[in-house]
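Could someone model coenzyme A with this protein?
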Amino acid sequence: MKILNDKLAKVLAAKRDELKAIGKEHGDKVVGQIAVEQVLGGARGMVALVCDTSTVPADKGLHIRGIPIGELAERLPEEIYYLLLTGELPDAAAVKEINAEFAQRNKVPSYVFDVLDAMPADSHPMAMLNTAVLVMQRESVFAKRYESGMPKDEYWQAALEDGLNLLARLPGIAAAIYRKRFKKGPRIESNPKLDWGANYAHMLGIDDPKGEFKQLMRLYLVLHCDHGAGNVSACTASTVGSALSDLYYSLSAGLNGLAGPLHGLANQECLKWVTETMEKFGGVPSVAQITKYAEETIAAKRVVPGYGHAVLRVEDPRFTAFVKFGKAHFPEDPVFKTVQNVYQAVPAVLKQHPKIKNPWPNVDAASGSLLCHYGLTEADYYTVLFSVSRALGITAQAVLARGMGLPIFRPSDTTTKKLREAAEKSTTKAG
Ligand SMILES: CC(C)(COP(=O)(O)OP(=O)(O)OC[C@H]1O[C@@H](n2cnc3c(N)ncnc32)[C@H](O)[C@@H]1OP(=O)(O)O)[C@@H](O)C(=O)NCCC(=O)NCCS
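Reply:
Sure, complex below.
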């Protein structure tokens, strides 16, 4: 892992110096205000984290290290991992090195499968994945080295070891969960000749004569890789990691957050909502029929999954990339056509509710229809795919956090009484 290690050593040394200098020169300067509505609104928009892997400008969507995600759609997930970690796209030798590392580290300990086998047959695939990650904690290089007195400036190297081991094993574990949970037959051995995304597709066992599903998996794993540091899963993972809990603890914690229906589970919910409309109207529903169904969903005090976002205020470029893939490969697929009709109908409905800040589709609005087309119809599994991808970002953020020497996370709290008193005393309005 020489290329990646050497590059990271340089990048992180410079980053540590930069952060130290900013703190020293400007430590007491004020860089933002906090309005009462932010305190009451899930800390929305409060800047409290440093994250260099990716940004999510509200008017543009995901950028990985300054590059719009749409421009990275043809890349391999391995390339994106290097980019997340170092800030640069890798050359062929660096990609080869990451692939070799993944191939060398991908053996899943047999006890992981024993634990999965012992879980109730109807366990949610996300509960299975997070259990598998957590049960491997005994493998943590970081935990072992910490116990034996590892100096602080080596933390990032140990975190990188954990990150690479986890990423190497996750596709095999995730594929095994799919095959077990949905009774698809025995586990499929990994194929060391394939790249990370294609190997995951291969181990899932989806029939793929033209290699299109492998292409979709690479795209899927690239598009979901990271989304800044403030989202529930990234924020949870980094909070847990800031206590120097190793990546097995922190990734599992973060992915438990991804399992929530307002976050990663929305892709599962989204396909269910789309197929509900198809069942209700007996085929591909018209825009008018979907409009009515969306209005009924909101009247029933439910959300329309796949639409809206805590940060974005435009169509999610990841949605755009998925739709482009669908249009190129199967424009006439009924579920995909329904997704496009939903896109024609739903924003107009949401715009009628001024409280909804973003009426546009997010990443989850189209992904399920693409997976369905290739026969991966089990929506309950979709957040596991999301998790395998998001592990790229979460593990990269952890390596950088340890490398930058970020401290334990400890925001402050207030009581309702104190908040009211402070708000009544304040004469400053946000903006
Ligand atoms: C993503 C999401 C959780 C963001 O929440 P948020 O930051 O609170 O968004 P807003 O400020 O726009 O929400 C304001 C109100 O509009 C509602 N709203 C937002 N998006 C909505 C949607 N797609 N359908 C119906 N109502 C929606 C919220 O539930 C909230 O209602 P409340 O005040 O009664 O609680 C929200 O848009 C949502 O639930 N979307 C559907 C689930 C989804 O697709 N999640 C995946 C995100 S990547």
